[in-house]
Amino acid sequence: MSPTMTATQVMKAGEFASACAVRVLARGGLVAFPTETVYGLGADGCSGTAVARLYEAKGRPMFNPLIAHVGDSIAAQALAHFNADAQRLADAFWPGALTLVLPKRVDCPVAEFATAGLNTIALRVPSHPVAREMIAAFGGPVAAPSANRSGHVSPTTAQHVLDDLGGRIDLIIDGGATPMGLESTIIACVGEPVLLRLGAVPREAIEAIARIKDAAVAPNDGDDCAPLAPGQLASHYAPRARLRLKAQALHAGEALLAFGSDLPPGAQKAAWMLNLSPRGDLIEAAANLFSHLRTLDASGVETIAVMPVPDAGVGEAINDRLNRAAAPR
Ligand code: TXA
Ligand code: MG
């Protein structure tokens, strides 16, 4: 089924845009909005039809559940059960770039569609003022995946959202480039905390608060199997171009995604070159990653050579996204 085409409005963030967003959400429409991580595509989380429309607009498989965005911990506690670790993590990182997957309360009003029929729910309290204003004004949980077509790189500007979803959604609130540029870190706290997705909050920061297991090394034998984020498919962040990782030299015809000031041999001949962070700052690199990937991909080159990025701090999540973008499909 192809989604109904609608005119997509783009509005500068502000009180008027928030009020429009609330009206659109209340009638079951779709609103893209900035968060501190990436742009989200919001729908009324309690409306099955709004959420169904959201899956359709993204072309997202229905088995892949959504994050419910709420205004504060109290609103989150009305939807899910928090164990002691979950509470500590929420206290430490909310509002912010952490998503918790928790046992859903039986009276949780979020649409079954949004949680893909699971007995858990993913929750996040974003810190971005535009997201906070919209969620507070709406007054209920906003279901929101990243505002890209399923399988594409996440959007970090309103223009990226328009490029991917123009004509398929009602409204885009333009709040400028998102400050962090990587999606939230996801931790399941059903029993012991399990890291489901590396993201904008680095592993070290989480480990200072709670002991976490990696989903990949968690037991995986039938009933005992650790919950996995169904959206973490190997080739999820898929540019059209091939990515050649850890490049030590640039080959003829390749574009270069650089990091730091020490450029590899051949770099001066690159037809296309963008630097994630000329001064070698990983936080700056994270903020630029998806935008630079989109730009280099749009150049039409066959291969993007990517310089090595250190695995420290948020570098681990950058490398996770690069590995997915480079995975064979
Ligand atoms: O930073 C972010 O997290 C952004 C902004 C908009 O908040 N959102 C985002 O959503 O990245 P999305 O849908 O692109 O990624 C959410 C991930 C998916 O991989 C999904 O499978 C997983 O969260 N997820 C959602 N609910 C889950 C659940 N109950 N159990 C396990 N994984 C879940
Ligand atoms: Mg996504």
Structural features, described:
By secondary structure, the protein is of the alpha/beta class. It has two domains: 9-225, Alpha-Beta Complex (DHBP synthase); 242-326, 3-Layer(aba) Sandwich (Rossmann fold), CATH 3.40.50.11030. 27% of the residues lie in helices and 17% in strands. The protein has nine helices and 15 strands. The protein has helices spanning 15-26, 48-58, 73-77, 84-93, 129-138, 158-165, 203-207, 282-298, 315-326; strands spanning 9-12, 31-33, 40-44, 67-69, 98-103, 120-124, 142-143, 171-174, 185-188, 194-197, 213-214, 242-244, 255-258, 273-275, 303-306. The strands form two sheets. An eleven-stranded mixed β-sheet has the order 1-8-2-3-7-4-6-5-9-10-11, with helices on both faces. It has a four-stranded parallel β-sheet with strand order 12-15-13-14, with helices on one face. A hairpin with a 6-residue loop joins strand 2 (31-33) and strand 3 (40-44). Helix 1 packs across helix 5 (129-138). The longest helix has 17 residues, at 282-298. It is globular, with a radius of gyration of 19 Å. The two termini are 24 Å apart. Magnesium ion (MG) is lined by residues 145-146, 154.
